[in-house]
Design a protein that fits this description.
By secondary structure, the protein is an alpha/beta fold. It is built from 6 helices and 5 strands.
Length: 223
Amino acid sequence: MRISVLLALVAVLTGGVGATASASAADEQACHLAPVADSDISLQPTQSVGVIYSENTVSNLQYLERYHSVALKGVKNGALDSRIREAFINSSDPKLAIDWLKGSLEKQFASVTVYDNLDAVVQAHPDVVVMLDTYNRLVTQRNTQVEARFVAKFYDANLQYIGKAEGYGGKEMSSVWVHDKAAPEIAAQIDQQRELQLNALKQFDASLKALVTAGEVAQVAGN
């Protein structure tokens, strides 16, 4: 494994996506669908759900796409060890979280549709509106703090707040940009990024299931 190729790739990653990560961190609370009041409606499996992405989610998806693209292009010549190459590519998959979160919602509700903006979802009149807020921070030469956070905020048809489901993972990684580490060790460290994302997504699944279950219990109690 040529460490010079690894360092060259890291330099591109740092310059190409580092600024976006910082911008996402500063904007991580961007969610302009603020609750007017708490809703009396509880979540039920029979409901239709309309999903919109927060500004932070859109920005973070762009960040992941750039990181992923750089990882793909930076290793095309095959000079980088295949294990490190795959670790970079797999851990920056921009579709991993979004597809997982949508699938998680589909398991709990009758129908799930993603809309481009708030106006579109309001016009569609689903039973429940979900603002999906996601954030990922990946490793670069300047950053060793890896994070994954996924939050779904639920509102009724009148945009009154119902509740939220969430999952989070964070870890301070030791630097992989050193000359004395073997390729398997570097690849294993980079793979931790994907493992952290998967653990956060599993937390989200459990949180969502608990939220829907609580809604069903509340409905039964109300009857």
